[in-house]
Amino acid sequence: MAAEQRPEFHNLEVQRRGFVATIVLRRPERKNALSPMLINELLWALDDVRADAAVRVVVLTGAGKAFCAGVDLRQISDPGEESALAAKGDFAQLLLRFPKMQKPVVARVNGAALGGGLGLVASCPFAIAGESATLGTPEILRGLFPMQIMAVLERLVPRRKLLDMILLGKTVSAKVAEEWGLVTRAVPDAELDGAVEELAHELAARSPTAMRMGLDAFAMQSGKPLEEALPYLRGQLEELLGKEDALEGLTAFLQKRAPVWTGR
User: Fold this and answer.
1) Annotated catalytic residue: which of 13, 41, 139, 198?
2) Is 178 labeled as catalytic in the residue annotation?
3) How far is residue 211's CA from residue 206's CA, in Å, rounded to a whole number?
4) Using one digit for the tens of pLDDT, what is the confidence trace for 194-212?
């Protein structure tokens, strides 16, 4: 069942093509910096595509030449905007939304991803960056600190490299970000759209049921000791084996044909 109709978004756009929904941050004049309105609209958009059974993969990107320049410092004390959408939460709630999506989210990093923008990239299960993209944490240079995004960055980046970046306010190239695990892959700018489309197509061809349950299980078991994780995961596997998609996948394998997923 598709998500109910929402009031018009002002700072982002949602495009649907087949099984893929693309969420585009649209504040190019501010390098797609995260205003309170944009954060709230992004929460609404993520919830909408999560509830839409026709969407199997989500792509997140920015309009213009930047992915996201971080939190808009001009609007920290004065939001200056009113939205027709009810408030769903703040930046912390936004970062918490990604592990609950139950669908793979691919960050298409088309330019600068700084501060909170880097937090969005790090929160997505996949991130493909164009070679000209830059990623970093300049907060220390403004007398601030990347407090919230540390929680997601430290799960990806080796400790000494992370401290070097955040304490010196460094930015790194897409290639270095790939080496550090900040992005899945860095590609030539001309190949960015093709690489994202290919990945999204491959992900959309997988069982939505296995994807949903697998992503939930991955998030739940993360950080747990083996004594807790393995019994939980055994139970999840047993539950998954009882789903229609699992039966279809096994049947298709034995019949040497492509599976037809129902999402059930």
Assistant:
1) 139
2) no
3) 7
4) 999 999 999 999 999 999 9
